[in-house]
Amino acid sequence: MTAEAILDGFKSLHQAMTEGFDRVDQRFAEFKTYVDARFSAVDRRFDRLETRMDERFTEQRSYMDRRFDRLEASVGDHEVRITALEAKP
Whole-model pTM? Predict the structure, then answer.
């Protein structure tokens, strides 16, 4: 085997490795694009869920605030009645 044949072999090996690594780089880039798209979709779903949960908690808080206000008013009415009854001889 001559030196030229060995050099040609290294050149073709180098070319094969370069093409192979280029294909691997391309596949990794495609996979990264796919994974980024999936994570973006999951992020959007979490954002929508967070918004829905915030709306729901706001509704619940408003409901509970109104309910506590009614209870406080009722307790206040009872205290007024009890005080009035206690004041009677």
Answer: 0.50
Compute the distance between CA of residue 81 and CA of residue 73 in angstroms, rounded to an integer: 12
- Give the Cα separation of 52 and 58 in Å (integer): 10
> 60-84 burial by CB neighbour count: b if 16+ within 10 A, else e?
eeeeeeeeeeeeeeeeeeeeeeeee
**C-alpha angle 45/50/51, rounded to 5°?**
100
Cα–Cα distances in angstroms (integers) from residue 64 to residues 19, 43, 58, 77, in the given order: 67, 31, 10, 20
19-75 pLDDT per residue, tens: 889 999 999 999 999 999 999 999 999 999 999 999 999 999 999 999 999 888 888
